[in-house]
Write a structure and sequence with these properties.
Blueprint: H1 6-13, H2 17-24, H3 35-47, H4 54-61, E1 66-71, H5 77-92, E2 96-101, H6 106-118, E3 123-126, H7 133-141, E4 146-149, E5 160-163, H8 165-178, E6 184-189, H9 194-209, E7 219-222, H10 227-239, E8 247-250, H11 253-265, E9 275-279, E10 293-296, H12 299-315, E11 324-327, E12 330-332
Parallel strand pairs: 1-2, 1-3, 3-4, 4-5, 5-11, 6-7, 6-8, 8-9, 9-10
Antiparallel strand pairs: 10-12
């Protein structure tokens, strides 16, 4: 089928290109174009499979109807899910999404921000490395619509959707305590990310609230880019010997998966000898042996709400909505904790 253009519709129906453009952009009523003429245009466009030129449409509307999404690692299941829900929600609002990964590199993130702005995206959703404060401040100063997701800058006033990281690990640790575990270790990554610090703080607060000492030797921090190689050694020092732990809190899903594998290699029975619990989960956590108890992040809500806030900023519909949102996690109790 031959591709038709706006001018072809105008010539065929003997109408002005302006009238056709207004109707195809849903502005027929406000420009007092008759219902009959609007129907003729829309019917003809549908019958002939008309597809608008998005670049020209963007110029006429003053926007590209495109959102830029910058994530640390699109291959990570958590961020892949965020991308999935952002794309679905954005489509409902009539926006396309352009994805890119920073690979946890601040300079790459900076380049992506300006590259996307040069591509005329209408706004940005960013899961930041938290090392680009200057660029986030520039976005604010130049009034570029943006929303921070999963990670934010506590000292910068901005739109964001995050989870209650501290509350999540606090609930996880409380659950272990309530099941009779009182020598609880923490396995986390070496990181200055606010989320990781809050997760460690939640663990420590739960212990303190229950009259237990936080033992430095029970906290293991490993390289997030080399955790597979470091996990075995880290666990061996705290699950064996006189001061061994009877439970472990893992601050990410990939640490928990790696940790369970290494515990099996060490012949440590889960949960009989050591109970384990994970912040967030992999899709198969309910299928592994034993199924892993996890604090599930509300990924769908995070994606949906980030898009809603951003579109509201772009279209300036409601300036009174809450643009700073902290969502609760949900504890999914399985056999890895013994209850």
């Amino acid at each position: 089928m031959k591709k038709i253009f706006l001018k072809d519709i105008a010539e065929e129906l003997k109408l002005s290109k302006t009238a056709v453009s207004l109707v195809l952009n849903n502005r027929g009523d406000e420009n007092k174009i008759s219902k009959e003429t609007q129907k003729r245009i829309l019917d003809f466009a549908k019958e002939n499979n008309y597809r608008p030129n998005q670049m020209a449409r963007g110029l006429s509307l003053g926007k590209s109807e495109t959102i830029g999404l910058i994530l640390p690692n699109i291959s990570d299941i958590f961020y892949a899910k965020i991308a999935h829900y952002v794309e679905i929600r954005a489509k409902e609002y009539g926006y396309n999404v352009v994805f890119s990964s920073s690979n946890e590199d601040a300079e790459t993130e900076k380049e992506l921000i300006y590259s996307m702005l040069n591509r005329q995206v209408d706004g940005l959703i960013i899961a930041s490395t938290q090392e680009n404060e200057e660029d986030i401040l520039k976005l604010r100063k130049t009034k570029v619509p943006f929303v921070l997701i999963d990670r934010h800058y506590p000292d910068i006033r901005s739109n964001y959707v995050i989870v209650d990281n501290q509350g999540g690990t606090r609930d996880m640790t409380e659950h272990l305590l309530n099941n009779g575990r009182n020598k609880i270790g923490l396995v986390t990554i070496e990181s200055e990310l606010e989320a990781m610090m809050q997760r460690q703080l939640g663990y420590e607060m739960a212990l303190n609230d229950n009259g237990l000492e936080v033992i430095a030797g029970h906290i293991k921090k490993i390289d997030r880019f080399n955790f597979h190689n470091e996990m075995g050694k880290a666990l061996k020092t705290i699950v064996q010997g006189e001061n061994k732990v009877d439970a472990l809190v893992f601050t990410t899903h990939y640490l928990a998966a790696s940790g369970l594998r290494e515990l099996k290699l060490l012949d440590i029975e889960v949960p009989e000898s050591v109970a384990i619990i994970s912040f967030d989960e992999l899709g198969a956590f309910d299928l592994v042996d034993p199924p892993i108890t996890a604090s599930k992040q509300p990924v769908e809500a995070m994606g949906n709400e980030a898009v809603e806030i951003l579109v509201n900023e772009i279209e300036k519909k409601n300036l009174e909505i809450d643009n700073e949102r902290v969502l609760r996690t949900k504890l999914l109790i399985r056999k890895s904790c013994g209850a």
